[in-house]
Amino acid sequence: PGSLINLKCLPDIDLFKSMEHFPSFRKMSVMEKLHNPVLDFQVGGYEKIFGKRHFKSKLNRLNRAGHLKFERISDFKILEKEFPKIAQYQNIRQGAAFNKTPFPYGIKDWQVFLEWLKNGVLHVTGLWLDEKLIGAVIMINDYGKTAHLAGLITYSPLHAKFSPGLVHLYLVSQLLKEESFQDLKLSPGYD
Question: What is the pLDDT of residue 78?
């Protein structure tokens, strides 16, 4: 009672529609349709998106700023070491955009991510500039077939002028293709 519940992704819209007929439910709920784009590596044309000069120029700019390293994080200890920085970046980003901090309590908040990585549920990548983590992308790994971007994308606000989030997504997409993923399911939203 008194709580706002936001269901961002509904896998079966018919379930929601069946509840819409109840006046009490209709009075308290709003439904928005958002596109949920999927990047399909099996269908030609995705290369055109990432072959644009826009992406390459941003990557080159970041490379000129220092030694850039991008890699997949599969070791629990590396994620555990880097998560305080990831949580800090995410708190700043979400705090500025939505006035909320998703990780206010430290390790208790991110323990679930560490457990999921141990169990192979996550696809995690990091972006380092001169050995300092400047960004991370954490996605749900659907058995090596589909990566779901609705996880966590974050980057250092000090490096925002280099567009590390965009560069990171560019590199993640290339990695997923190399790892024989079929799809990258982008998060539903207005962009």
Answer: 95
The encoded tokens of residue 167 equal 């560069």
Cα(45)–Cα(108) distance, integer angstroms:
42
CB 184 within 8 A of CB 176: yes
Cα–Cα distance, 116 to 76 (Å, whole number): 10
Q: Residue 126 in contact with residue 71, Cβ under 8 Å? A: yes
Phi, psi of 122 (to 5 degrees): -110, 150
Bridging pattern class, strands 183-185 and 146-155 = parallel
Rounded to the nearest 5°, which phi and psi values hold at 134? -120, -5
| Per-10-residue mean pLDDT, the chain, length 191 | 71 75 80 72 74 84 95 94 94 88 84 89 95 94 76 90 90 90 72 46
Rounded to whole angstroms, how far apart are CA atoms 90 and 82?
Answer: 12
What is the per-residue pLDDT across 87-106, written as a single tens digit (0 to 9) for each? 999 999 888 888 888 898 87
C-beta separation of 140 from 147 below 8 A: yes
CA 190 to chain centre: 15
What is the C-alpha to C-alpha distance for residues 142 and 32, in angstroms, rounded to an integer? 26
